[in-house]
Amino acid sequence: RSVLQAGVPDAAAVQLRRTLEAAATHFDVKPYPLVKAIQELIDRGLVTAPFGRVLGHLKDLGNLGAHASDVRVDRDSAERALRFTTQVLRNLFEIPAELQLLEASPADESDAND
Predict the structure, then answer these.
(1) For residue 33, is the peptide bond before it cis, meaning its omega torsion is within 30 degrees of 0?
(2) Total-model pTM
(3) What is the DSSP string of 19-53?
(4) Which residues does the chain have with pLDDT short of 70?
(5) Alpha helices of 33-108 — where are they, by DSSP H?
């Protein structure tokens, strides 16, 4: 977010790709090449196939940002990538943690009466 706010969407795209690599590593998935890591996350049920397409897009955008060319990552694309990355991270980390808390908490009386 800081890099994007500083007006450097190319660098933001690279950092978002690195975030996906770190997430893969967290789940003991070899992050390189990222396309294989994405497929393994899907195969293990950690990411759904539609999110796999999103991850592929983030990978491509990160590659674009990392390499010198006349094609640049624009701010809108980088902001969209940030939203995608946030959703992927939420699905990989936050939702499972929330479900775990829910399962660990005792059912309240209204649930027992259902």
Answers:
(1) yes
(2) 0.84
(3) HHHHHHHHTT---SSHHHHHHHHHHTTSS-HHHHH
(4) 107-114
(5) 34-43, 49-66, 75-89, 95-104
